[in-house]
Structure formats: C-alpha cells, structure tokens
Fold each of these.
Amino acid sequence: MDIWFFIITMALFAGVFIFLGYIGYRKTKTAEDYFVAGRTMGALLIAFSYGATFISAVALIGFSGIASVYGHSILWLAFLNVFVGIFIAFVFYGLRTRKMGLSLKAMTLPELLGNRFNSVKLQQISGLIIGVFMVAYTSAVFLAIASLFQVTFGIPYWICVVVFTLIVGVYLIFGGLYAVMYTHAVQAIVMLVGMIILTVGIYAMLGGIGPAHEAAAALTPEMLKSIGSPAATQAPNGLTSMPPFLSQPFMMVLTLIFGVGIGVLAQPQLITRYLTAKDDKALRRAIPYGGVFILLMTFTAFSIGPLCNVLMYQNNIPYPVKETAGVMVANPDAVVPTIINQLFPSWFILIFLFAILAAAMSTAAALFHTAGASLGRDVYEKSSKKKISPERSIFITRIATFVIVIATLIITLNPLDVVAYMTAFFFGLMACTFLAPYTLMLYWKKTNRFGVWVGMLGGFVFTMAWYILIYFKTAPKIIGSPLIGDYVINMLDPIFIGLPLSFLLTILFSLIRKQDKEEEALMKKSFENI
Amino acid sequence: MMNLILGMDMGVFLAWIGTLLATVLCIVYGLYYQFIKKSEKKQQPESSKEEEKKQQGDH
C-alpha cells in the first residue's frame, strides 16, 4: 500500500479528532463538563460512545481469531454482549446509576461509592485500583494496534505508538469527555462501515449464510490440519457445533463467554457513559442503537472467524503463524488481517485498518479519561485537605491524564510481562472487585460501608490470587505451574468464584454491622429519585 | 450426521438466534419507551453543574 496515501489519510483522521477535541475544549466550563460531558448527552451519542468504548481492536481482531480456533460456539459471547452488555446493563444498571449519580453529585464510579458510603478512603482505593490497572490495559490496546500497523505498512513500531498515543492524548486532555464522546461517534461510524463490508464480503464469497455455515461444518479435522488450523483439535465437533461438554475447548469457550460477557457490567469506563445521559429517556432510547451497534460488531466478528478457515482452505492460504520462544505456533490474531490482505481489494484494506484504529483509539480514549479521573479526582484531589474549585479540579485531572498518557507511552514502548498479566487480569478483576458492591449499592438499601469494603477487597484479593496461582493462562507464566492441575478447575475464569464470593462477603458484612446515621442519611438521599 | 439448522448445530443456532432476538428486544424496548409509554416527569435533583456555576458567580 502507498505509504503517502496512508500518511495523508491518517493526517485527515487526526485532524478531525483534534478539531472535535477543540470543540470539546470550548464547551468545557465546569468539572461536570469535563468528567461527564455536562450530563447532556442524547441517545445516539451515548450508544455510540458506549459501543466504541466496549469494542476494542482486541474484540474485533482478537476474538474473530479466537472464533477461528473454537468455531461458532463463541457466538454465545455475542448473545451476552447484546443481552447483558446492552439490555441488562442499561435497564438494570444504567437508569439507577444515572439517578444515584445525580443525587450524590458523583461523576466517577469511585466517587459514587465514596459518596454513597461516606468514605473518602473507599473512593481513593477504588480509584487507585482502576487507575493502575487501566494504564496496563490501555498500553495493551496501543501495543496491538501499533503491531498491526507495523506489519501492514512497515512503519516502525515506536512511531506508531507515539503518534497514536499523542493524538488520543491531545484531544482527550483538552476536550474532556465531550471530545471523547464526539470522537467516539465518528470512530463508531468508521467501525460500522469496516465491519459491515467485511462481513458482507466474506458471506458473499461463500454464497450466503446457509451455504457459508454448511461449508464450515463440512470441514473435517484433516482438512483443517492441512492448512495448519488449530481448529482441527480445538473444534472437535466441527466449526459450527458446540464442543463436547466439559472438554478443554468447552471450558475455554465457557471461561471467555462468562469472563467477558458478565464482566462488562462492572467496567468503570462504561459506567461513566450512564452518568452522561441528559435524562432517563436518553438512556432508554440508547438501548436499540447500542443493541444494533454491538450486533454489527461482535456478532459479525464472531461469525466470520470460523468462516476464515473455509476461505483459507478453498484458496490454499496457510493458517498464519508466529514465532514464540523459537517455535512456530498458530497466530489467531493474524487470521482476519491475512484474509483481508489476500482476498479483499486494497481500498478495503485501508478502510479496515482505520476501523481497527478507530476501535483502538476509542477504547484507549475512554480508558485514559477514566484512569485520569480516578487518579486525579478520586485519589489526588481527595487527599487534599483544602476545598478545590471546579477549575482546579479539571486542571488536576488534566495533569493526571497527561501523566497517564506519558506512562502508557513509556510502558508500550518497553512492554513488560507484568503489563501483559495485568491486562489479562483486567476484565475479571474489575468484575470481581466492583460488581457486587456496585449492584448491591443500587438495589439493597441495607448495604453499608463495612460490607462494601470487605466485598470489594475480598473480590480483589481472591481474583489476584486466582490469576497468579491457579488460572491456566497466567499462573504457569508467573509461578511455573498452577497450584491446581485439574484443567476443569484451573480453566475457570475467576468470575465464577470471585463474583459470588464478593456478593456473599458484601451481604454478610453489611448484615453484621448496621449503617451509621450519616450513611443512613446518604442512603435515603441516594434512593430518593429511584 | 446430526441435524444442522442453517449449517449450525442446536447449541450454536440457539446462540445465533438468541443474539438476533436480544437485539430485537433492545429495539422493541426502545420503541416502546419512545412511542407508547408516557414519560413520567419527576423532580430531578439539581446537578452539580448549576452549583458550580453558582460557585463561579460568587467568586
């Protein structure tokens, strides 16, 4: 591909975002503008921003690659993404979160917890957990996209990292959440165009939905082996069938589906989107837009993954590989890029790369913003004894975000193993740490500070221990071999145990100790509009 | 050979159709609140934006 054409297109792309950042900057007058876009957002912007934050480049490329290994059984994750990630999230969490956030004047998840349970420490500690782990997660997002651009265009990795991080950093630091949400709308449209063309193109090449799925079902393990596809062993019942119950592939699919599908409810960067809504109606009207957006992202990505095996088999394209510790292993992340490079016209390669870049940038911007708010507003600002003006609050968060952008840049340029582990921990950790206190805070009036502390820290410690000592993906790399060798147990995502444990601890310790008078008053205040 | 629906076995087909139905549920919910359900106007608490503006005015 012509590098100059790429550079000009990239400059235009960046120009649009910087311009939207400037509009955001002009509109940002108060702390509420900076942190929750003035609580003025309408349905379409909320839906696009939520969807673009939710769906990262990893979700599009990584998960379609995973689907090429485990087959269409991964579609259960698409079901949870729409049903739990949109419907349950907005109806049962979004509406109450918005009302409670308004009553308690909270603009972040830690602030919501802190104000609801009258505890600055609770706000600071939850802000610290979110801020630190988000830096690692954001770094992984940039690492993935910079590697893809390096391979496709031959641009040095460090240039990709610096350019992408700085573009996001500039419009985000100055424009706040207004800029993030406006750019999300543009990025979401680019993502939609890319995924729709890709999906229609692949199904058209294979003759439509039925014939395409039948062709995938007809691929035998021998055929899959002939192209080097790991699906030969990982999809034992075929690409369009569920794997045998409790088999290793079944456990792998199960852990992915629930880890990501349920974990989405407690992602702080997504919870912020509820707080931006101008009214309940905006949130309710965002549900259909969000549902259709997620359908067109995950349902399409997970559907085409297995079909890539058919295209590779029919066109004699070997399954992509990469070198790991001197051994060539299958590389699912490269499956969709390989198919696009080999079978699609060059104009679409550019559209798809920008769709992936948009997915990465949108997620990264939301993560930067949430991490900056967590460390600036929730941790630093709350440790100050002086009363802080709204202007100073924005200034502090801009500085915190700047520090986070620079830290992410340094980490991405020098990737460490620990960052990869922290990224792997992220979804499960957020769910096991925050989902129980957050859910009970919204629905159970007896929830108190003591219960929330124990539930939150209990979930956090358990999840960290599970990932370090037991989980099959992370424990062998950290401690050599997992403490529990039985694969059915060690393949379980911590969410299966950590989440019920965190709920149990929060309920039990809330019952043991009663709310004090201040907490009770805050509880009444937080429920007065619900 | 087991029976396939649109080339998928029952477990996968349920996920496939379930995703589409979940999207339809989202659309129906949105349409219901847009066109059928009457909006309930409740007293909203003052957002901190108004407070901030007042605070700025005091300075």
Amino acid sequence: MQGFAAVKSEMGEYWYIRPGLEESVNDYFSAQPEADMALESQIPEKDFNQAGKGSAEVKNLLKRLGVDPGILRRVAVAAYEAEINVAAHSLGGMMVCRIYDEFIHLIFKDMGPGISDIEQAMTPGYSTADDMVRELGFGAGLGLPNIKKNSDALHILSEHGNPTLLEFLVYFNSDE
Amino acid sequence: MKLKEIVAILDGEILLPGANLDIEVPCAFSSDLISDILMCTKEPTLLLTGLTNNQVIRLCDMIDIVGIVFVRGKRPLQEIIDMAEERNIPLICTNLTMYRSSGLLFNAGLRSCKI
C-alpha cells in the first residue's frame, strides 16, 4: 500500500497523488497543455451493452503506441471501473482521454446526481449499486478503490445534487 | 494444465467448437464480482464464474483471460458466445458448482492466480 501523504480530502473534493509525483502532477494540472492525442466517448445511463467499449478503445490505442502491458492493464482496469461507475450510478456522461509523452489523462464527466460522501465511497466494500447493477456482477464496492490502486493521481470533484468529475493519470514508466 | 484436461475434469461442454484445447492454462480465479476479477487478475488466468452477461466478455478486453468456465449449468446467450468468438476466448459450461469446480481443478494441480 502506498503512503497517504499526498491524499487530500475535503467536502466534495478528493485528491490522491502517488508520493514522489506531486510536482509533476501539480505542474500538469496548472498548465493543462494540449494533448498529443485525444479520444472522446459517450457513456449512456445504464447501458451495459455499450459500457466498457470506450475503455477497450483506449487500451487498444495505447497498445498500438507500444505501451508496456502492465501499464496497459492498469489504464484499462481503472478506465473500465470509471466507465462502469458513470453507467451504473449517473444519468449518463462522457469519457475524455488525453495522451501525452509520459502519461495518459482520463476524464469522466457525468450529469449527476453526485456523490454525497466521497470518503465513504472510497471505502472498499461500500456500494450504493441497485439490484439491476448487482445482478450483472457489479456493486462490490471496489470501483473507486480499484481506480485509485491502478492510477498515479486521482481527482474527484462531486457533491450531492451536482455532476461528478473523476479524472486520473497513469504514467507510462511507473511501477505499481 | 491444458484446457482439454480442465474440460475433462469438469465434465464440461465446449461452447465454441473451434476452440484450441491445447492451450496451457497457468492459473485460475473464481468469482461472480467483476471488480474482484479485475483486481485479482494480473497474469493469464482461467475464469470460473456464474455470470453470463456481456460484461464478462468485455472484461477480457481489459485483462488477460485465457478461457471462461460457466459453473452450475449457466449458459450464456448466443450473442455472448459470438462476442467470445470474436476475441478467441474459449467458453466451457459445467453443471458442477463453483466450489466443486475450483476444488477439483486445484487438487489436480491448477494453482490460484497470484493476487
């Protein structure tokens, strides 16, 4: 388990940055430079025929770019969990993928209804999934913990009644 | 362990007739929870599950699943079988429970995946 030095949590906002990457991550988020490559896909509400396609596309693109298989797996798992979260818990949303030389930045925006307690939602095993979602094998309460575990930086902005933004970075040369 | 030995041990039925049964299966994992499967599978793995929806096949786009065993007589719909065929994922059905299937394979020497 990584250290928690770089975890910052306030009402409605959560930050996790893998220790040692604080400067690079902060520089990136303050500058937000143009991406070398970008992809976008829609995530319709409760559409489990579509859900996961966007993540698979991102993984295939990175694979073609020659990204290490271990990193590919981390990006794919985190992206898929985030995509399923949007499909399962929100009124629908979208995924934006921005690829740079050193890392990938994935952004998930939805249309609400928001997370009332992010800290609680980060607790492994805590889930608000409904029966339909659970029947499909989701709702283990491991979605957000799994995203955090596989990413190098994670930022969540959400509160009850508002849209949620979840974004994460995975560096191409990092070890889990 | 080869996939054909697994089929024999589980008295399984192969859903994709063209599947290559000579592939080597290094380890296995059993679960009905998608997040568990994602979290625990870091190497080529045989998945034993009771889930038969399309997301089980979608998982194979994210992680390295070498084959899927549907336990307790569960059968996926044809569209799911077609999705697996596109991805070249062998599908096996067994009437045995997940516990019994896992136990038989473990006793026969198929190890658990590293988590």
